[in-house]
Write a structure and sequence with these properties.
This protein has a four-stranded antiparallel β-sheet. The chain has 127 residues and is of the alpha+beta class. The protein starts with 17 loop residues before the first helix and ends with a strand.
């Protein structure tokens, strides 16, 4: 896997990209880097990473089993970052659902930094 480009769509190998954030959250210097690492975690089914990157104020509302089910039942195809600000990322994640139907998850995500670490707060689905 080290020679392949990272699943997040960067031109870097996974080991020089999202794996750095997966191994240490402090390596995400921007909310976009965290967003990319979260997408890659869905691809690689790193459920604990996804769960732990929810902001502590919203984490308790998340269901690990549902996150895992969506991650496992989806065949993640592509991540497209559309727009970023210092605390938001608008993106489209393309995936095949369990019925092999192509789906598009279009979201504007909100992020907050807490003690030097970026966290996903919430997101709004867009049409």
């Amino acid at each position: 896997m080290m020679s392949e480009n990272c699943f997040c769509g960067s031109a870097l190998p996974y080991g020089q990209c999202c794996e750095l954030v997966h191994s240490n959250l402090k390596n995400a210097e921007t909310c976009e880097q965290l967003m990319r690492a979260r997408y890659t975690a869905f691809v690689l089914q790193k459920i604990d990473f996804i769960y732990e990157t929810f902001h502590p104020q919203t984490r308790r509302f998340q269901n690990k089993k549902e996150i895992e089910q969506w991650s496992r039942e989806s065949n993640w195809q592509e991540l497209n970052i559309l727009k970023t600000t210092p605390s938001t990322v608008e993106f489209k994640a393309i995936y095949l659902d369990r019925n092999m139907v192509l789906q598009e998850h279009h979201e504007k995500s909100n992020f907050k930094k807490l003690q030097g670490i970026w966290y996903y707060v919430d997101g709004k689905l867009l049409a």
